[in-house]
Amino acid sequence: MTTRIVWFKRDLRLHDHAALTFAAARGPVLCLYVIEPALWAAQDVANQHYQFLLESLLELDAALARRGGSLHVAVGDVVEILGELHRRLPFTDLYAHEETGNDISYQRDLAVGRWCRAHEVGWHESPQFGVVRRLSDRNKWQRHWEAHVAQACLPIPLLEFAACPLPPAVLPSFEALGLAPHDSPLRQRGGRRQAVAVLQSFLLDRSGQYRGGISSPLSAPTACSRLSPYLAFGSLSMREIVHATRKQLATMPATETRRKAGLTGFTSRLYWHCHFIQKLESEPELEFRNLHRGYDGLREDDWNQQHFDALVAGRTGWPLVDACVEMLRQTGWLNFRMRAMLVSVAAYPLWLHWRPVGLWLARQFLDYEPGIHWSQLQMQSGTTGINVPRIYNPIKQAHDHDPYGHFVRRWLPAMRKVPDAWLFEPWRMPPELQARYGVIVGYDIAMPLVELEQATRLAKQKLFGLRAQSAVLDGQAAIVEKHGSRRRGRDKTGSKTAGVMADDKEQLTLGF
Q1: Max Cα-Cα span within the chain
Q2: pTM of this prediction?
Q3: Any bridge partners for residue 498, and if so which?
Q4: Cβ(62)–Cβ(74) below 8 Å
Q5: Mean pLDDT, the chain, integer
Q6: Cα–Cα dist 329/320, whole Å
């Protein structure tokens, strides 16, 4: 019988897996994953991503073994591996999911498509999220998303396996792939079982903290769903999370108001998750270039390596910022509000261009999802042209979200000696008090790189001065039409409304 190849990418599960289901209905399947050195040589990946991937692959292989098969892992260029497979085991069809990743994965998929056409192999791609390839009209997108998530989740199909003619691959070490050794020691672990456990704990318990708990870095680690890395690697499908959440909402008693409110807000963010990925699908260049080209040159010629190095080292001098960098280094995760604050500090008082900052943060975020990441880097940096920039003051954010300094003191041991009165502005502490508490500003903790209010004021002048120019204003309408949300709501009279608008600046959908 003819073999079908199921190529796993960022869809590391058997449940609700359209490509696997469609291939299995047509005969024996060979389940393939390719570790691609070219992809791992990119600037937006890190060892923590690779280790999470290996954990996920190990569990996926075990799930296939329980059904009499295995996951065949190859190492190399996908087109070359498909060619070798085809010579040894001619196959008629290749099944995979539609991936909206970085430019490297996009170009790789184009090359696979060309290879399939040249060898008369059917190339079948199934949607992974509610993202539409070659979307012609954004007005139809919300209906498409609702239709996608409303479909029944696909059960694991009955599987008949084909033997793989390729020899077993030796999995490369992170050193062989050129990855730095750092692996966030407190990060989440990969695999389907972990993903399901996290989903259940959120639906049945932690969702009660969601509303009101996701902004503070103190409460967010348990209040947030913590599902974003499992969505990024495909251990769970978007559809099964939506179904499980809506089912939980439908069966909860009316008295469960906090959990109901939390799950309702969470469902909204699942929608926005796909909304942002659609932007990169529709305009892949936003990974590299300002979405609004009228902002070209705003920061590019003012790069300050000293500012960037201090940010990466957690030595900006603003305690909440530096504590967030340290938490991110150790856990691979940070809640959405603190992510936005990090980008805001980089973009405004430090006046750093979003692209290098974005590459650094992509390596830090275990849940790095290119479609969301690059859209929101630009949104927070003010280069979309359609969003009012939210410029966060890191001192105010510290008082609002860490009023007793528990977060700062946890992640910055030197700050544990600093009294409350000086905790968020330690550079104001008199020298005699620094000596008394054994904390020398500029040594044990950094001095601020710039004077915050003055640097922020100058950044606003530059940004809003450009924003007010007629050429920039003229370009906004086309961007809103192509990328703006079509959100349905009610006006002050209670009548239903629908319109085209820029995205709500609060809708940050990584770390949710």
Answers
A1: 83
A2: 0.94
A3: 488
A4: no
A5: 93
A6: 14
